[in-house]
Amino acid sequence: MFRVLVTGVIALSMLSGCATSPTGRSQLMFMPESEMTQMGLQAFDNIKKETPVDKNTTTNAYVQCVGRAITREVGQGSWEIVVFEDKDANAFALPGNKIGVNTGLLKVAENQDQLATVIGHEVAHVLSHHSNERVSQKFAVEQGVALVGALASPRSGAGQSLMGLLGVGAQYGILMPYSRIQESEADLLGLDLMAKSGFNPRASINLWNNMTRAGGSQPPEFLSTHPSYSTRITDLNAHMAVALHLQQKALQLGKRPSCRP
Q1: At residue 143, does pLDDT exceed 70?
Q2: 188 within 8 A of 233, measured Cβ to Cβ
């Protein structure tokens, strides 16, 4: 049945052409969103089984405060936000409305606005269907029928590859990063999203400065395939006027996040 479904979706996609991202970029996506949601939920369950969940009530309240302010702007139902005990400065979001934040990120993101920059960026990947795009390109034609089985064994070769395509490969020892085009897209969409939530978009520049310093000569995994530092700063600054306007509108609507670690 799954083989027939994948084959049918591929044929339909070839006939109907490409999808379009929120920025107007053409995307080739074969996978039904219901399948992507299923994979996101399974991947998140796998991570929760294998990575300790932080129990600190203050930390959780802080991350939940920032995450909920961001996801309220999305309008896609409730999101589960989990803090994981992991020293890597990283966060991720998955299809199915799941967000993970590592405790290591909280040592680099120094305030609510910087944390909102990262969460906004990760949620933007989901809103832009970047996982679907990647899974489609890599697996839909070659190994579509093996997707569900791969998630059942996340530490197998196929399982690690699929977790990487979903955006959580670092947890399983394989880094399969988003493309630079997708990262740039998530940067700008995430900046708009955090600004619409009332956070200060100027903090995005400070956040990426902190991330670069935290990595020294070797940037954190989160930055390993992002656009170069100079390109990122140039792009963010070029978009800053738009983001500041969105923040001003949010403040006028009474959106004033007050999240403290």
Answers
A1: no
A2: no
The percent of residues in the chain predicted with pLDDT above 90, rounded, is: 49
- What residue spans define the domains of the chain? 2-252
Residue 85 among the catalytic residues: no
Residue whose tokens read 């579509």? 144
Average confidence (pLDDT) over 129-148? 65
Per-residue pLDDT tens over the stretch 233-250: 889 999 999 999 999 999
Type of residue numbered 212: T
In this structure, what is the dihedral angle of CA atoms 232, 25, 176, 201, given to the nearest 10 degrees?
30
Query: Three-state secondary structure along 22-87?
Result: CCCCEECCCCCHHHHHHHHHHHHHHHHHHCCECCCHHHHHHHHHHHHHHHCCCCCCCCEEEEECCC
102 three-state secondary structure? strand
Q: How many angstroms separate the CA atoms of 46 and 81, rounded?
A: 15
Q: How confident is the model at residue 98 (pLDDT cuts 50, 70, 90)?
A: very high
Name the catalytic one among 122, 133, 183, 185.
122
pTM of the model: 0.78
User: If we measure between CA atoms, which residue out of 81, 86, 43, 35 comes closest to residue 62?
Assistant: 81
Distance from first CA to last CA of the chain, Å, rounded?
48
